[in-house]
Design brief:
Blueprint lengths: L1 H11 L19 H9 L5 E5 L3 H16 L4 E12 L6 E2 L6 H9 L3 E7 L1 H9 L3 H4 L4 H26 L6
Parallel strand pairs: 1-2, 2-4
Antiparallel strand pairs: 2-3
Helix pairs in contact: 1-2, 3-4
Length: 171
């Protein structure tokens, strides 16, 4: 009930102005919050975020299936914490496995939006309130975020064009 009331206040009690995009970060799973969001908001799409490990990908699959059932387009899958990049030697360690989200996207027929590594700079920027795309715009991880964001925007534009091209019937 608290989630529903917070969602109601966020969507109906706030003047968001004219937005291009509103991102709602949801916890993993397919619980009441996800269903409530799907029912109460006209969602343009859902971006599924997962780590590459099997247990997290089970939740990602459930999320894809749930959003598909309620006719919310899947914008893609993002693999968060895809690897740990050593700040000293730049060696990549695949702590949670490698490529699980890419494989899941292919198996489920959805777009793969990108990989975001586990890097100290991301955490530092979050703690400081300065996103890494601002503090280190030329870094590999910033480029990964920008590339992922562009894929999501492209997918949203594609979905918008599909919607506009559908015949409209007034019954």
């Amino acid at each position: 009930m608290k989630v529903s009331s917070a969602l109601e206040q966020m969507t109906r009690g706030v003047d968001w102005g004219n937005l291009d995009v509103l991102v709602v970060d949801m916890p993993p799973g397919t619980g009441d919050a996800h269903i409530t969001v799907s029912q109460r908001l006209q969602l343009s799409g859902a971006l599924i975020v997962s780590t590459p490990q099997d247990v997290a990908l089970m939740d990602a699959r459930r999320g894809i299936n749930m959003f598909s059932k309620v006719e919310v387009p899947i914008l893609g899958i993002v693999e968060n914490m895809s690897c740990f990049k050593c700040p000293n030697c730049a060696e990549r360690w695949f702590i949670f496995g490698e490529g699980g989200s890419r494989k899941t996207a292919a198996e489920m027929g959805v777009d793969f939006a990108g990989e975001i590594p586990l890097e100290v700079g991301i955490r530092q920027g979050s703690d400081d309130g300065v996103p890494i795309v601002i503090s280190a715009p030329d870094s590999d991880v910033s480029k990964a975020y920008v590339d992922m964001a562009q894929k999501v925007v492209d997918r949203l534009e594609e979905l918008s064009k599909e919607e506009q091209s559908r015949p409209q019937f007034n019954l």
